[in-house]
Structures are given as C-alpha cells and as structure tokens.
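B., you asked whether I could sanity-check this one before it goes into the benchmark set. Here's the sequence:
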Amino acid sequence: MRVLLCVLIAPAPAFAQPSTCPGAQAWSPCDWAFDLAPTDNTDNFELRGEFRSPHHRTYVLRAFRDAGRRYVIRFTPTEGGDWEYRLSSSVPRLEGQEGKIAVATADAPGFVHPAKNLHHFQTENGQPHLWMATAADNFVRMPRPDFDKLVDQRANEKFTHLSVTIDSDSDLREAAERVRAINSHGMVADLVLSSIPEDPAACRKYIQDIAARFSALNITWMGLPGFEKVQHGRAILRTAGQLLKQFDSYDHLRTSMAEASSGAMAS
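And here's what the prediction gave me:
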C-alpha cells in the first residue's frame, strides 16, 4: 500500500509537506500547491488548512482552484516561529495530515486595522497608519509595464492605498499577482467587488473563492463600486459582509464604495 501511494503522488511530490513554501517569512504570502492525482475525485472537492501560530491563534484557509487539477492554499504567517497545520479534505489521503512550518521573523508592519480607540487606523505592529488612497482603473487589463509604472509612481507620491476593482471577467490569477505588486511597494490594495451575485448560493460560492485567493494578501474589502445605484445593494452587501467575516480568517477591514457617503449604510 505504501508503494501504491508513492506512485499516485509522484507527479506532485510533497503533497502535505511545507517544502512548497521554502524560506517562509512573517507577513509574506506563501502559495501551497496541491496537484490532484488522476484517481482523485474533483467533484465537490474540498481542501482547507488550519494554521496555528506560536501564540495559538488559528487561521482557517480554504484552497482555491488555480488551474486544471491544481489547487492552492494561500497562507500568510503573521509572526515568526514554528506554526502547526492540519489539513481537512474530501480526498481521504489528504484528510487529517499534520505538520509544522518554520517561519522566520520579519520587520514588516502587518495588516491594517482600527486602533482600539477607533479614532484612527494602525498596523499590526501598533504603528499609526495614514490612509491615503487613489484608484487604479482597469488594473487587470492595463498592460503590465504600464501597471508597474503606475504603481511605482503612486508609491513615490506617498499613497498608502491603491483601490482596484475585480470585475466579473477579471483574470483572478493575474489580479492576485498585481495585488502582490501593489503590496511589494508598501501599499494596501483596496478590493472593490463589482459583481457580487445576489443569489445567496452563488454569493457564497463567489465570496469563498475570492476570500481564498485574496485574504492572505495585504488588502481591505471595499464592497460594491457605489452601493446606492445597485439594485438590492444593501442586502447584497449585508450577505457578502457576513460571508467575508466567515471566510476571511485575517479579518480585513470591510466597507463599501458609495456615490455620495457611506453614512447611508449606518442603519
């Protein structure tokens, strides 16, 4: 039986080993890839990892389909030290696998969240964060050299946030790579979701996939691109917000873009 298992996983060695994330570092996203074997059933396939930090904080991260039979768990450790993980999966050979990932410490500010007094924002290291934002229109369709030039320019202009929109036809792999580029310039990417489905089941599927792809990156959730003009916009945002709270273990800031003021959402 041991020999048969080795034959099945040979095309993608180290299915459940952290060797796919060598040199893991705090606040740096790590893509952990799983190539399913031909005998694995992909119908209703599920895979998630529970990652426990040295200070016993647990992050539950779901895999997303990257291409073909490849699935990825995108994980960002929030501190250095030895992290423990456990896999849960609909594929029996992945179910219950456990191990450790050694993470190096890093001098990085971490994600943005409200300060305890709620009067300003701060990063995970406790430093105040000045929210200076601008938008990058059509950021996925823009030729990559033009995009890189724009990001570099906005960083030099001391912007700390860059607002980008995920459309229904956006290439999500390319979108994630460009969000990484924004983060590499020290800026937070504010994700506007222009095509959140109204149907509850479709909304759940959409948000689960979006959260799996982007929540490990340095982002905020900016909801719809003008909720007042979207039919049933408030109800859609309420559902999406509840789902993001469920699927985003990093608990990034959640709000929405508005035509006039977000004050109308207060009720």
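One thing to flag: The chain has a mean pLDDT of 88. Otherwise nothing jumped out at me.
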